[in-house]
Amino acid sequence: MKQVYIETLGCQMNKSDTERMLGILSHFGYTQTQDEKTADLLMINTCSIRQLSEDKAFSKIGSWGKRKKENKNIKIGFCGCVAQQKSKELFKRAPYVDFVLGTHAIYKLPEIIKRVEFGEKVCECTETPAAGQDFEIKRVKSVNAWIPITEGCNNFCTYCIVPYTRGRERSRPPGVILKEAREALAQGFKEITLLGQNVDSYCAQDYRLADLLRDLNKLDGKFRIRFVTSYPSDITDELIKTAVELDKVCEYFHIPMQSGSNEVLKAMNRRYTAEAYAEICAKIRKTVPDVTITSDFIAGFPGETEEQFQETLSAMEELELDYSNTAAYSPREKTTAAKWTDRFLPEKVKTERLARLNEQNKKNCLKSNQKFTGRTMEVLVENFYNHKGKNVVTGRTRNNKIVHIPSETDLTGEFITVKITNARTWYLNGEIKS
Ligand code: SF4
Fold this sequence. Notes:
Blueprint: E1 2-8, H1 12-26, E2 30-32, E3 41-46, H2 51-70, E4 75-80, H3 81-86, H4 89-93, E5 99-101, H5 109-117, E6 122-124, E7 144-148, E8 150-151, H6 162-165, E9 170-171, H7 174-186, E10 191-195, E11 203-204, E12 207-208, H8 209-217, E13 224-228, H9 237-245, E14 252-254, H10 262-267, H11 274-287, E15 292-299, H12 306-318, E16 323-328, H13 347-370, E17 376-387, E18 390-397, E19 402-406, E20 415-423, E21 428-432
Parallel strand pairs: 1-2, 1-3, 3-4, 4-5, 5-6, 7-10, 10-13, 14-15, 15-16, 19-21
Antiparallel strand pairs: 8-9, 11-12, 17-18, 17-20, 18-19, 20-21
The protein binds iron/sulfur cluster (SF4).
């Protein structure tokens, strides 16, 4: 058997793609290794959402290029979103790379590997998604199985590279999704997370996300269902109602707001106003008890004024968003906003606004966590480790709060009942209720 090491950067969609690649490679004589030094095949699955992530990918393959000078037999693959975006150009920048594999061509891996093993350099970055075949998925050992239900995006937010790297939105057939869910549950996974750039626009011939949730909820056994990411204006009343009615669907919504200013939202080509976003949050909070709503925000979008930024800070505070991913605006090649160089804000302004967003985020998180002190909650255990001489398990509540609990036993994969003893900014502490 040959060994493959895959480094994965970016979102859960990329992690899910890596699991698919590992599944395919396992049928062609490759086993996964966590040690890049022993690998015959080194692959990086890249993310192009921010410059930082792209830089990280190039720095990593740079180090692999040096290793290849000592061992010419090593093969190097550059995959994922940056591969899709840069295509053949990558061979110029990194001549030691053997193959470039875009986001649409994962299922062509067997053929690519064969050609690479014969010494060919291969670039497979088609614009059209290759037809998926039925390969086993090598899931990372954990309690949570990620299942993509949609791929690509039609929204073309002016800052976002995804429609260019992942293509137009496609919904996977319900039968395939349900089959993957059944297999994951049979393997012992306790949580299914449905993935998509806009998970709530899932539509396979009139079969919508709410239908899929209902069918998944019928599967046997105790497990949880989550879905991310939601586009604000695609969340329907039916979806909220269905989510609250189904016992396995968790009380958790991830709904990126991006900005609290209507002018900035318009410039971002987001199809909702700050008021409409607030209404959706209010509706969810009213219908779903103990719900956690998380969001994403961009600081320093081109042309964003201090007043407009203040509107974002106020929205974050007033909507009591439980947690937010934050980032300073980073121009991405091909996107509309990247051309507005005359409106770019100085790095110093972006960094300072990002720091203020993070401060507000911290306050929101602590306030949100404090609501649960003294409560009894169900936790699905994800990890067991020793922290400063004490054995601890860590898991998540249904509403996605991380809880640390002292335990002498490894309870990974078990549902336990926990009393929350205190709240910290990023997590809760608890004790097992006997
Ligand atoms: S909705 Fe906008 S931000 Fe999200 S993936 Fe699509 S284009 Fe990107």
